[in-house]
Amino acid sequence: MKPDPAFLLQQSGTADATTRPYLQLRGISKRFGSHTVLNQLDLNVNKGEFVCLLGPSGCGKTTLLRQIAGLDLPDTGQIIMGERDITLLPPARRDYGIVFQSYALFPNLDVAANIAYGLTGRREDKQRRVSELLALIGLDGIASKYPFQLSGGQQQRVALARALATSPSLLLLDEPLSALDARVREHLRREIRSLQQKLGITTIMVTHDQEEALTMADRVVVMNAGCIEQCGSPLEVYRNPATRFVASFVGQGNFLPARALGTDQIRLGEQLLQLPHPHLRGDGQALDVFIRPEDIVLHAQWPATADAVLADVGKTELLGAIYRLHLQVPAWGGASIQADLSHSQLEQLDASPQRRLGVSLKLARCQLFDASGEHACLS
Amino acid sequence: MPILRRSRRLAASADETLAGLLQWLLLAVLVVAVLLPLAAILGKALTDADGQFAGFMQISKTLSQPGLLRAMNGSLQVAVLSTLLVVPLAYGYAAALCRVQLPMRGLFRLLALLPLLAPSLLPGISLVYLFGNQGLLKEWLPGGSIYGLTGIVLGEAFYTFPHALMILLTALSVGDARLYEAAGTLGAGRVRQFLTITLPGSRYGVISAALLVFTLTVTDFGVPKIIGGAFPVLAVEAYKQVIGQQNFAQGAVIGLLLLLPAVLSFVLDQGLQRRQQAQLSAKSQPLQALRGWPARLLALGFCSLIGAGLLLMMGTAIAAAFIRQWPYQMTFTLAHFNFDQVDGGGWLAFGNSLRMALATAVLGSSLVFLGAWSSCKLRSARLGGSLLHAIAMLPMAVPGLVLGLGYIFFFNSDANPLHGLYGSMAILVLCTVAHYTTTAHMTARTALTQLDPDFEPVAASLKVPLWLTLWRVTVPACLPAILEIARYFFVSAMTTVSAVIFLYTPDTVLAAVAVLNMDDAGDTAAAAAMATLIVASAAVVCLLFALLSHALLRQHQRWRQAATR
Which residues from chain B sit within 8 angstroms of residue A107, using beta carbons? Predict the structure, then answer.
């Protein structure tokens, strides 16, 4: 039986991952002139983990990756990989493979030579290794082609194979999918993720595409203006955004102005809601209730449940699999909100414009933000 | 609280250390070959004949001499007249090539670039044969002698035409078709379109070309030396002071004077180029060349006229080399190539020139390419890189004559440990490499910056040393540019005379210098023969390089097309 290429590439020691993080960034700062690009960043990455650095352009995510790769030196801070302090080491003395946005495939070398570029040793060993890697990325027949003869997706996978050829213990991906068509991108997301899981290789990927981060990562690190805003599993980041920035950058959401009445009660417009929360001060503190469009419940019958109020139906947008309804709620201080519905839900509702519908919030999914501050009242 | 440690640096890997050392070495070579000679010329201008510091005394003394004032006046006249003659002609020629569907376009382009293959002495020789005392067309020149202002301006026109043309071709080859369409729909005629769109759009190119022609004519000494007669110009004056009267201090002051227009136009030009780049937007539509018969006929007539003039200037000297006794005995002979009968160096000079040009091409292209590579690809050596780039841009603003003078002052001093180089072939090679470094450096940088900047980081992550990536990826990808640089160095080394005129010895005499010396001794036919040899060898080498890069492109076409897309 032909051995599974993934097995041959398996990193030793993935199973006995210790509690100690594999990669530790401590107090990393970087300034270009008077502009602070990275501000006292701390981050731990565990062995075998897939971490996505997510953020808008200019947030410092690529700069952070370049510090890890040794292409830049942080002004302050330490980078520790395994047992070694690699802060001051040049790229060649670190241990990682990297895939750039441009792929940087050598145009004058064929695919086999590109993949074998970092390999040393006997010719037969190199050839065997190249075939293994080509099998791994599912591109067996292209060894003697030149980069320009490949499609974007193929080039991307060859660059990945080249980065993995020397069995590095860390894989760095700098926006590896952003130059590809939407369909190829979706396919490669799954492919890279399953490859990473097969090899158990610690991976850090930079992306500005939230869907990419949510579907691929074990852990998402949301960055903004040189700081880490939140670090958590995709579900945590989506369900419980730690800051106003994360709430608005990842996914869609409604912010509804409210006031705290006690430690377990808030007033949203004319409505009183029971939202037990340890940090509520209850002195009329100004708040924003954050709720995702899919967590807004619409009622086909009126009168509906006790916590429902009436809303005026505005525009209805078709987004493909779902509809997005624009509503105005007089009882919530005239707030404009957006609610997401499936096709079948919409058919039951008969939500034509100028109609009024009952609307309520899934209280368990509500998140409170202090109106004057950035951070969530939670946590 | 972490301590701010801004002064810390990434450790360099072994290959980076090596590359850094190489960079400092190249920097040292540039300092010795460019900066120190220039400093020496300045020092010389500030000291008197006995070597005592004289401050600006020496300069003001030299400047107040009536001879020098006349020479300045003469140089100015030559430069202004040549610029006024060449720029409009080159503009018309460039417009015909770029904007009209010209028949035999490639041929006309090649024809106009021919003068680049010849030393600036050649047009002088041709003019002597055409309009000199025994000239074929002497009657065509009404009232007066070719020896003097007329001859110099005509000769300089031939010598500077291709330089002006190349700049104007670049300026006129870009343009936005939408502007002409808009003007057309608004009812503007051809003349109005030219005055309101074409001319303003190419104004930076025109200024650039004018500055270049002005500087080249002020600093050239080949043409006035042959055809100038008693007409005084600065470049010849410097030559006379140094070679004739051994008056080095005065030579240095004149050298500084020559440096002035060159530096000035260099600075102006740098500013203009920055503006020029901002002109075209990404939305610009490519131009359609004019197809109407009147325009095509006019362009063809104009280009034929200019082309015939250039060919006549080029051809006369070459023809004279094979004619027994111009104009009395117009029979074919090879006797003039038997240089043993005349002084000047003969075949030794030609052999020297070939060896010098070959050495310059090999050494120059490797040094310049490595320098450009280290100045734009070394992550760990930013400071050295910018220094290297800055010094490499300098020789563009230094006329050959000035560089040559600087070399005498610097290397001919006993205190210099490199004194041993003086009088050797090596100093000629070094001087020529330095003289033509800027253009070569810019060509190399253009090619290098087109490569993906992530190649080196990827290679470093794969633990492949820098020099291996240089050898396996960077050099193959830049090979056409490297060949172009080598060709440029070879042809320039074959034709240059201004810098090396101060540095040769009887053993290291060069072909272009021999042309000068033979003409000086009255052996004009032998001078024409030697000039013909220079043109022929330069042409052969250009052809060889063209074939080589054609073959290379065909072999690598598959990946190259895509790589430069």
Answer: 477, 559-560, 562-563
Taking the CA of residue A93 and the nearest CA in chain B, the distance in Å comes to 7
Residues A196 and A269 in one domain: no
Same-domain pairing of A222 and A334: no
Nearest-neighbour CA in chain B from A112: distance (Å): 14
Of B5, B457, B565, which has the smallest distance from its Cβ to A91's Cβ? B457
Q: Which residue of A has its CA nearest to B564?
A: A107
Q: Do A90 and B562 touch (CB under 8 A)?
A: no
Instruction: Quote the DSSP letter at residue B401.
Output: H
Residue A377 placed within a domain: no
CA B533 to chain centre: 20
Angle CA A305–A309–A311, to nearest 5: 130
* B8 close to A (CB below 8 A): yes
Range A324-327 contact pairs with CB under 8 angstroms and sequence separation of 24 or more? A324/A293, A325/A298, A325/A351, A327/A357, A327/A359
Average pLDDT over residues B103-132: 92
Name the CATH superfamily housing domain B345-565.
MetI-like (1.10.3720.10)
Instruction: Give B307-326 pLDDT, tens digit per residue.
Output: 999 999 999 999 999 999 88
Q: Locate B329 and state its tokens.
A: 């005995």
Domain ranges of chain B: 39-324, 345-565
Tell me whether A76 touches chain B (CB under 8 Å). yes
Same domain, A239 and A343: no
Instruction: Identify the CATH number of the domain defined by range B39-324.
Output: 1.10.3720.10
Please compute, for residue A8, the number of CA atoms within 13 A of its CA located in the half-sphere on the CB side. Answer: 16
**Is A255 near chain B, with CB under 8 Å?**
no
CATH number at residue A184: 3.40.50.300
- Bridge partner list, A53: A206, A221
Mean pLDDT of the residues in chain B: 88
- pTM for this structure? 0.86
Number of domains in chain A: 2
Mutate to test the interface with B, among A32, A39, A108, A110 (most CBs of B within 10 A): A108
Instruction: Please give the structure tokens belonging to residue B369.
Output: 């390419």
Chain B neighbors of A76, CB-CB under 8 A: 2-5
Does the distance separating the beta carbons of A70 and B10 come in below 8 Å?
A: yes
Query: Cis (ω within 30 of 0) for the bond into B395?
Result: no
- Span A289-348, pLDDT tens digits: 999 999 999 998 887 788 889 999 999 999 999 999 999 999 998 999 999 999 998 888
> Would you say residue A100 lies in a domain?
yes
Round to whole Å and give the CA distance between A274 and A267: 9
Three-class DSSP category at B283: coil
User: Between β-strands A170-174 and A202-207, what pairing exists: parallel, antiparallel or unpaired?
Assistant: parallel
User: Are the beta carbons of B562 and A27 separated by less than 8 Å?
Assistant: no
* Domain span at A268: 252-370
Assembly ipTM: 0.84
